[in-house]
């Protein structure tokens, strides 16, 4: 299992990655790109994603609702969070 809990990530790209069941709780990610990434089962509780793009990712909406902040991020359905 990948454990990135409490990580500080800036300008990162995950491409064609399988990070299902990863621990991203309390992670702070700014300008992240999640291209063709599978995030099913990943823990996102209290995570912050600013200016991040999940457009082509496979992630459950309920998981994203666990995140603390999605400021200016693009969700898989194309919605831009303000």
List keywords for this structure.
mainly beta, single chain, two-stranded parallel ribbon
Write a compact overview of the structure shown.
This protein has one helix and five strands; from the N terminus they run E-E-E-E-E-H. It is mainly beta and 82 residues long.
Question: How would you characterize this protein structure?
Answer:
- The protein is mainly beta and 82 residues long.
- 7% of the residues lie in helices and 18% in strands.
- The chain is built from one helix and five strands.
- The strands form two sheets. It has a three-stranded parallel beta sheet, with no helix packed on it.
Q: Quaternary status of these chains? A: single chain
Mean pLDDT: 95
Domain count: the total is 1
List the helices and strands in order.
EEEEEH
Largest sheet: 3 strands, parallel
Proportion of residues in helical segments: under 10%
What percentage of the residues does DSSP assign to strands (E)?
Answer: 15-25%
Q: Figure out the total of helices.
A: 1
In the sheet with the most strands, the strands line up as 1-3-5
Please tell me how large the radius of gyration is.
Answer: 11 Å
